[in-house]
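Z., the sequence and structure:
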Amino acid sequence: MFKQTYNVIGVMSGTSLDGIDLAHIHFSAADSKWSFQILENETVPYSADWLNKLQTAVDFSEAQLNQLNSDYTILLANVIDTFIKKHKIKNLDAVCSHGHTILHQPQNGFTLQIGNLPQTATLLNQKVVCDFRVQDIQLGGQGAPLVPIGDRILFSDYEYCLNLGGFSNVSFEQNGNRIAFDISPVNTVLNFYATKLGFNYDDKGKISRSGKLNSELLSKLNALDYYKKSFPKSLGFEFVKETVLPLIEKYNIPTEDKMHTFTEHVAIQTALALPNKTGKLLATGGGTYNDFLIERMQFHLPQLDIIIPDAKILEFKEALIFALLGVLKLRNEINVLSSVTGAKQDHSSGVIYK
């Protein structure tokens, strides 16, 4: 007989590199329905040194990656331990951690999330559930996105759940299946150009708004092969580094114009990705603070009600859902949907370290 309540911490580090998200969650299960409460929560920013390492790790050698994985595991354990002690959190069932994606190459049968070494459990003296993506890749899936099972279980009142982070991804029900896929890069590109202007990010989209649209660049972005592919499909930073940025850099235009044009591109691709453009859409992730991006999305989706939730859900939804994935793994219940990832079967993914 399974427990009906769980006391866990969800930990997530996204490709936008804004920091490590930690959320203390209480889950309750009754009559096959789940409810949750987000308690203490925090985003711990990366130091300049760690930002540089994570931004450049895509080019590391195998030996460098192994060292980075070890070092990051120690960093992550320290951050989690500090969070636990700071908030005097007791009697945890598990720490459920995504780690940080460095390489994501499902076409090559490979994905790497650092910070998922067994050492994490030893350093924390806690049960840890982590490394959720590898098994799906081994089963022929994309290893992403993994959040849709949580969208189905926790946010079924919405026709669409859209996350605007380093990349955007969407999930929705279609013919009884949960469908989900990565739509496009978002903050991986916008933050790159904001940094060139001396900012960590584009506050409320003000920089992008000040620029001008370059129609030729917009057409080239919209014509990229990825957008013609059918789901399941997913994106990694390799796509940004090898395809998107080189394309944008061919244009000798102001950085503000590049950001304005890319924002329009994201809004258009979001609209094209949704099969039915009515109902309610739950928008979360750091990109929801970009007022200009939300306005352009609304322009291209005039009949859709874009709903931005309270700050806890907005900022910590992914940490919340990886906490749920960890709980489902503890129960040996399905936490990855083959309709989403393209794997051979639904499965219960992740590794439990005690």
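The radius of gyration is 19 Å. DSSP finds 13 helices and twelve strands in the chain.

Let me know what you think.
H.
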